[in-house]
Specification:
about 350 residues
Length: about 350
């Protein structure tokens, strides 16, 4: 088992990060049988031990052969090599295969791990954190973003380009899960991803047989790696996907962000504050709120249920509510610039408890 890093503290001033925003520990597995031996992680605010119960698959070899590429030919990509004319609609999204045929390839910074749910995900050795722990990449993305925000219905009802900000590209699970769900709806989707490195995606594309949500999207994602932009047909929708490789808090302070397309949804999936505190500050969320179009409803869900995070989002200007459960986490957090997008707003009783 891999330990969940700790990090407790209080809500600081304008330039201080909101600490303990993830004290609940994403990978907690109470009531589950652990795989093999494990050590206790830090305690959460309720006094319970946080554990990450996952099993590391033998890596076979470290690094990767320079001539190796993920298998091709079994799954056609969204438009594939031949492409599709704008407006042409494939009847179905690229299909996902379930077979795992060989040991995953590791490199110096990442490893494929098997989660309690049986799904596979990417583990960052440097950060000692696992992407989408417990339930896996697809299940978490579906619960936190696609179903909770009714993204497919919102996209269907939008006559303009539907804009997604993907904060924390990682191994691309969140945008790809949405694209698959929306594959039968004609329209235009623009994804703008942000991350400080593309190494997780590069690693994931070398292990597609274990991360089967990527199957069928290999070619556009490789173009995204090479060119930082890919245009392609994903079933019915026409997709324009760009990535900005930059320190996100610093990028938000640059003038160019004023010209970024205004989002309908923000998939906020940064590493925990213990490892990435600069991503969880009041100034950062305030800047995001300032960049939104007040006439375009936009929601920002995230996996944390921390009181301090919710206070930070409220102070930044958002409407804030209780988000849907995901995996073993009974609730998450959703913020929005429109109250209509928050199904269960925080009430006065919550505020009284928070200020007690």
């Amino acid at each position: 088992m891999l330990d969940q890093p700790g990090g407790l503290g209080g809500l600081g001033g304008e330039d201080q990060p909101a600490r303990n925003l993830r004290g609940e520990c994403r990978g907690r597995g109470h009531g589950q049988q652990p795989f093999g031996n494990h050590r206790s992680g830090p305690e959460d605010p309720g006094g319970r031990q946080c554990h990450r119960r996952l099993r590391q698959i033998p890596s076979g070899q470290t690094g990767h052969h320079p001539n190796h590429h993920p298998r091709q030919g079994q799954h056609r990509g969204p438009g594939g090599e031949r492409g599709l004319a704008a407006g042409q609609c494939e009847s179905r999204a690229p299909q996902v295969g379930a077979a795992v045929s060989r040991a995953p390839r590791a490199n110096g910074g990442y490893r494929i791990v098997r989660l309690v749910s049986g799904a596979h995900s990417v583990h960052s050795l440097a950060e000692a954190e696992t992407f989408h722990p417990v339930v896996g990449p697809v299940a978490e993305a579906e619960a936190l973003y696609v179903r909770q925000l009714h993204l497919v219905d919102r996209f269907r009802q939008t006559t303009e380009e539907f804009v997604v900000w993907d904060v924390g590209l990682g191994a691309a699970a969140n945008p790809v899960t949405f694209l698959r769900a929306a594959a039968e709806v004609p329209g235009r989707i623009r994804v703008l991803s942000f991350d400080h490195t593309l190494e997780p995606l590069e690693f994931a594309l070398r292990n597609v047989e274990h991360l089967d949500y990527l199957k069928g999207y290999e070619e556009p994602l490789r173009r995204l790696l090479r060119e930082h932009h890919a245009g392609f047909q994903a079933g019915c929708p026409r997709v324009q996907w760009s990535v900005r490789v930059h320190d996100f808090p610093s990028l938000l302070q640059q003038r160019e962000v004023e010209d970024f397309p205004k989002p309908h949804v923000i998939m906020f999936d940064a590493f925990s504050p213990a490892k990435n505190p600069a991503m969880w500050t009041r100034p950062l969320f305030s800047r995001i709120f300032q960049l939104l179009d007040p006439h375009r409803p936009c929601a920002l869900p995230t996996y944390s249920r921390s009181t301090l995070l919710r206070v930070t989002l409220l102070l930044a200007g958002f409407f804030v509510g209780v988000g849907h459960a995901t995996g073993e986490k009974e609730q998450t957090t959703i913020a929005a610039n429109s109250l209509a997008l928050v199904q269960q707003p925080l009430d006065r009783r919550w505020l009284e408890r928070a200020m007690a």
